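Handout, section B. The chain below has 140 residues.
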Amino acid sequence: MLSPNHKSSRRTAGALVALLAVFVVQGVLAAAAAAPLSDAEKIQALIRTVEGRKDLQFIRLDVAHSAREAANVLRIKLAFAGDRVKTVDDFIDHVATATQSGKPYYVRYPDGTEVTSAEFLRQELKRIEHPPAAKRAIKR
């Protein structure tokens, strides 16, 4: 039979191991959250951003499209571009901003304001690359 002091020291050791595990996990998560995204991850984040913006219309060839339709077009164009798209800038400049004929895409906000898709995507890229401090804290 174990003495009361031995049981207490085992509980203390177990608590210390659990606490250490929590710190290790937090450190790993913090490092992962702080790690910069690859260009491929940024491209996918931009497409997900477009898809999630159900409040916006995406204008292509003078026709308004839903966020889902716009995201699907971007995915298809990215697939066709293949290895010609190496960076997020390649994606924005050569896939996500104009038709093959060069006619620009636009994004229409609920108030009717329109901006080029390039302007919209570059703004969203800034948010992806530099999330507000509150969002960074939540990710950890």
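Note. The chain has a mean pLDDT of 83. Compare this with the example in section A.
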